[in-house]
Amino acid sequence: MADTEHRGRARRARTAAALLTAAGLFAAGCTGHGTPRAPADDGRGQFRTDQPSASPSNTPEPSEETDRPSVLAVKIDNVRAARPQTGIDSADIVYAEQVEGGLSRLMAVYATKLPKAVGPVRSARESDLELLRQFDDPTLAFSGAQGKLMPLINGAPLVAQTPEKASRAYFRGADKVLPHNLFLRPERLLPAAPGASALTTGFHYGPAPAGGTEDTSETVRFPAARFTFTWSQSRARWLVSMDGTPDVTSDGKRLAPATVVVQYVKVRKSAFHDFLGNNTPYTVTVGSGRAKVLRDGRAYDVNWKRAKATDGTEFTTKDGSRVNFAKGQVWILFAKA
Fold this sequence. Notes:
- By secondary structure, the chain is mainly β.
- It folds into 2 domains: 2-29 and 38-55 and 69-198, YerB-like fold; 213-336, YerB-like (YerB-like fold), CATH 3.50.90.10.
- 12% of the residues lie in helices and 31% in strands.
- It has helices at residues 2-28, 126-132, 150-155; strands at 72-76, 93-98, 104-110, 139-141, 159-161, 170-172, 182-184, 213-214, 217-222, 225-232, 237-242, 245-246, 259-273, 279-284, 287-295, 298-306, 314-316, 330-336.
- The strands form 3 sheets. Strands 1, 2, 3, 4, 5, 8, 13, 14, 15, 16, 17 and 18 form a 12-stranded mixed β-sheet that branches. Strands 9-10-11-12 form a 4-stranded antiparallel β-sheet, with no helix packed on it. A two-stranded antiparallel ribbon has the order 6-7.
- Strand 15 (287-295) and strand 16 form a beta hairpin.
- The longest helix is centred in the first third of the chain and has 27 residues, at 2-28.
- The two termini are 37 Å apart.
- Residues 63-194, 220-332 form the DUF3048 domain.
- Keywords: Signal.
């Protein structure tokens, strides 16, 4: 009970800090330096980019209640019309899950760095709630959800930040059409990056495990989406392609994680549907199964285990040894077992 009360106090304090930050942004009267080249504000709707930027004097100092770090998770649109995306290269972890119609959606998790902008931002899914339980009171930025799902989101142990709740943190970009043009200013939700200690995922980083097989290209298919990871020896990274096209950010940077995990999970029907009547898949991330870890140009067949939602995920070799990831960005793709 004491831990529950502490989490509640911490969440309220973080929300208050975010509101103070927004108030400081309003009063600052600056002209918003450091705006990325893309996306640019189109002047439509209630979300604008020409708002004043935060100055150090207007950023609240963390209180004792906010000492426990919290990640920022952002739901990212991943259909063709949403690309190129913004700010994904700054994420510590990128999760890819299946949504309606066999398409894919991303969740980018930020702890060590907050980019100037992230997006396009899209709606949340029920699976996100289970996945995010591994973090302590995470902030979830998303553009909304089905009406029947919102009470579950509002009751979950997270800080839900939608455009309706934090309008000054969002804006519409000019380079894409609705609904693929909603972007987030992370610094208007969190005063600073919480740091690596907030990544309570159970992941470990270090030397590669023994064994494995040489693997320079791996493709993961969803019913209506395709991811390909190609090893670049010169960059020591896996170059990402989506649906057969090299994937770059809006700043022209190629997405290139250090470690890629293909995690085979149960994908079942949920109680929710989209406006066309398509069922929303539920990706089950608690349990155990097999996975493939790609790092350093090699592939490792491993096991994964997550005993309960509040746990991180353990990855082990067939003999039970812990699997280390390469230092850098990690992509986790939830493929149907």
